[in-house]
TrEMBL record:
<protein>
    <submittedName>
        <fullName>Alpha/beta hydrolase</fullName>
    </submittedName>
</protein>
<dbReference type="InterPro" id="IPR033140">
    <property type="entry name" value="Lipase_GDXG_put_SER_AS"/>
</dbReference>
<feature type="domain" description="Alpha/beta hydrolase fold-3">
    <location>
        <begin position="81"/>
        <end position="282"/>
    </location>
</feature>
<comment type="similarity">
    <text>Belongs to the 'GDXG' lipolytic enzyme family.</text>
</comment>
<dbReference type="Pfam" id="PF07859">
    <property type="entry name" value="Abhydrolase_3"/>
</dbReference>
<dbReference type="InterPro" id="IPR013094">
    <property type="entry name" value="AB_hydrolase_3"/>
</dbReference>
<dbReference type="InterPro" id="IPR050300">
    <property type="entry name" value="GDXG_lipolytic_enzyme"/>
</dbReference>
<feature type="active site">
    <location>
        <position position="160"/>
    </location>
</feature>
<dbReference type="GO" id="GO:0016787">
    <property type="term" value="F:hydrolase activity"/>
</dbReference>
<dbReference type="InterPro" id="IPR029058">
    <property type="entry name" value="AB_hydrolase_fold"/>
</dbReference>
<keyword id="KW-0378">Hydrolase</keyword>
Length: 305
């Protein structure tokens, strides 16, 4: 932990102390507590205002899937980035991720579309994935019906569980996707990577908590290996991929293993590893602003190369 920024170390200690106290008191996690936790840290630590000139709340065309469209330069035909938020398939929303979506639109100069896909445990696998598939299929019609100026070049991005959703779409519908951005992605529902042992507790996302998330998400006798993007068939036209990983993240090895598979198949990819960061650091921006600025720069550079 010595390499972590001091601000992150101090906050992480208080976070871990609170977790330890909850365990002493016998407080078990609930979806409501998890959702409140992600919302609270994001609201507390992603505070710098970003003005986007055009922001529209609507629904994905022909569906009941809420979405928010961010256009940083109305009137200009910009490429499109469909963004799937993280949160263990249980937490997160358009509102929680609004400041991050704004930053993606501002830095990348893309029309960003963020959706509220259905969450577990109320809506278990594969309902949220179905929402993401439908959103990709209808994103052009959605923008047309809203009179949005855009260029029909569609890239997709996701952080954490949103990375799993984005990677799954890249495998299933590669023809419609220009580029793929995976931000500390969760890609292995079988929990088979060594980093899950090395960083199993003490770094925000804990292995035991990941198992709990997945048990809420997969409520039937689902084949978790088949559902995992890490083990999915990679098409030869898999989109070029940017991968961001963090050095104190228990799921970092999943991203690295995915990258090796892409490289072996000759699929264009780029990897940036922030060795002094934890999982979900974009939600902790005020504590690690330099790392966040660097990450948004990497995304901008990749999408606009």
């Amino acid at each position: 932990m010595a390499d972590m920024p001091t601000s992150l170390q101090i906050w992480l200690k208080s976070f871990n102390d609170a977790l330890a106290q909850a365990r002493v008191l016998g407080i078990s996690p609930t979806p409501e507590m998890a959702r409140l936790g992600l919302s609270t840290i994001t609201q507390q630590f992603v505070t710098a205002p970003i003005t986007i000139k055009q922001v529209i709340d609507t629904f994905i065309h022909g569906t009941a899937i809420p979405c928010r469209i961010y256009h940083p330069s109305p009137g200009n035909e910009l490429p499109v980035l469909l963004f799937f938020h993280g949160g263990g398939h249980m937490c997160g929303s358009i509102e929680v991720y609004d400041p991050i979506s704004r930053r993606l639109a501002h830095h990348s100069q893309h029309v960003v579309v963020t959706i509220d896909y259905r969450l577990s445990p109320e809506h278990p696998y594969p309902k949220g994935l179905v929402d993401c598939i439908m959103s990709l299929e209808e994103i052009v019609n959605t923008l047309v019906t809203q009179n949005i100026s855009f260029r029909p070049t569609i890239s997709i991005a996701g952080d954490s569980a949103g990375g799993a959703l984005a990677a799954t779409l890249a495998q299933r519908q590669p023809d419609t996707i220009n580029q793929l951005v995976l931000i500390y992605p969760s890609l292995d529902y079988t929990l088979s990577s060594g980093s899950l042992i090395d960083y199993r507790e003490g770094y925000i996302l804990e292995t035991e908590k990941i198992q709990w998330y997945f048990d809420q998400y997969f409520q039937q006798e689902n084949n978790r290996q088949t559902a995992s993007p890490l083990f999915g068939a990679l098409p030869s036209n898999h989109p070029a991929t940017l991968l961001i990983t963090a050095g104190f993240d228990p799921i970092q090895d999943e991203g690295k293993r995915y990258l090796k598979r892409l490289t072996m198949l000759g699929i264009d990819n780029l990897h940036h590893h922030l060795d002094n960061m934890t999982h979900a650091f974009l939600n902790l921006e005020d504590l690690v602003s330099k790392a966040c600025d660097t990450t948004y720069h990497y995304i901008d550079e990749f999408l606009n190369r």
